[in-house]
Amino acid sequence: MLPRLKAEYSPDYVVINGENARNGSGLTPAIMKEFLEAGVDGVTLGDHAYRDQRILTHLEQADQPVARPANLSSNAIGKSCLRLRSTEQNHPELHVMTVLGRVYLPFPANDPFECVDRYLEQVGSLGGIILIEAHMEATSEKIALAHHLDGRVAAVVGTHTHVPTADARILPSGTAFITDVGMCGPYDSVIGRNKEAVLKHMTTSLHVPYDMAEGDVRLCGAVIDVDDSTLLSTSITRIEYSMDPD
Ligand SMILES: [Fe+2]
Ligand SMILES: [Fe+2]
Predict the structure, then answer these.
(1) For residues 100 and 107, is the Cβ–Cβ distance under 8 A?
(2) pTM of this prediction?
(3) Residue 171 in contact with residue 177, Cβ under 8 Å?
(4) Which ligand is nearest to the CA of 100?
(5) Residues paired with residue 212 on neighbouring β-strands, in sequence order
(6) Beta 15-17 vs 42-44: how paired, if at all?
(7) pLDDT tens for residues 211-230?
(8) How far does CA 86 lie from the centroid of its chain?
């Protein structure tokens, strides 16, 4: 569905979260290659960053546009930020950083607010567009981070809950925000997993492997317009495409 999105919006950069691409959890070099061939410019990860260790070498390579969440230990493997350059001349670079939440997320992480603040102090004068991914469970934590960064980054985009929210907006000082862009994957499911398996587990407490579901595949995301001079946003549009003909 990416060619359709590109035809409709001609984005300068396409960034996706790929942490669930390997049968629901983790990312592999082969899937990373598929993403790049499909026209993706940058790939982020989340709490499932290290589920498939085959991606570790890619995470360390400067020329592979894939990053781990930033607010982990400084010993954690991988780049903590992506810097993407457009092929178009004079377009600003895009900096992408993912931070994990600390509310209802059982993956230990450092303070996401402080992490982004430190980064902004470092890059202050670099002049790139800054996209922060709020990979968090709690809507409150994502909204709080967005207000904390309003006017200092181009966009704060929420991920992790897989359910698109209806609150895409430009905050008062020019930062685009959406609580969750939603999932690219099968919506006839429980956040991507086979619904029968999840229901069996939830109704009987038995341990059941959660395989990926298949039906009603959609691409969900957001298209954000950034002003090249202010590096802040002028619009954010939620996208939802279906594989089935309209
Ligand atoms: Fe996640
Ligand atoms: Fe996820």
Answers:
(1) yes
(2) 0.96
(3) yes
(4) 1
(5) 193
(6) parallel
(7) 999 999 999 999 999 999 99
(8) 19
